[in-house]
Write a structure and sequence with these properties.
globular, mainly alpha, 123 residues
């Protein structure tokens, strides 16, 4: 092998190494990244939710469930949205608790009563 061939192989190896490092540094974002919030955004949404804005409570739920991966905290925010009249949030919360054990079943009954869901439509 000549000097030119050796230089070519060294350059090729360096190129492949750099490409692999770049690929490792630029991995694809995970799906929940679009639900990320800054601390300032979280504080603002929390204030709005606590003041009665159901959409803000729902956004907080999305943040915790889809970005943080904390389902229980997210469900508590959806419960808040349900308390504020968000019918879709109520359905999601009830489905979540219906899947659980005895304590979750008690919570389901409590929520159905609190939200005025007639026993004839309870599942």
């Amino acid at each position: 092998m000549g000097v030119l061939d050796a230089c070519f192989l060294i350059a090729l190896a360096a190129l492949v190494s750099c490409s692999n490092a770049r690929i490792a540094q630029t991995s694809a974002p995970f799906p929940g990244i679009s639900y990320a919030l800054t601390d300032e955004q979280k504080n603002e949404l929390e204030k709005k939710a606590m003041a009665g804005d159901a959409a803000s409570a729902r956004r907080m739920a999305h943040y915790f469930i889809l970005f943080e991966g904390d389902e229980r905290v997210g469900i508590s925010w959806l419960e808040k949205a349900g308390d504020l009249g968000d019918i879709e949030a109520r359905g999601t919360v009830l489905r979540f608790f219906r899947k659980g054990g005895d304590e979750d079943k008690k919570k389901t009954l409590e929520l159905e009563q609190r939200w005025g869901i007639p026993s004839s439509v309870r599942k």
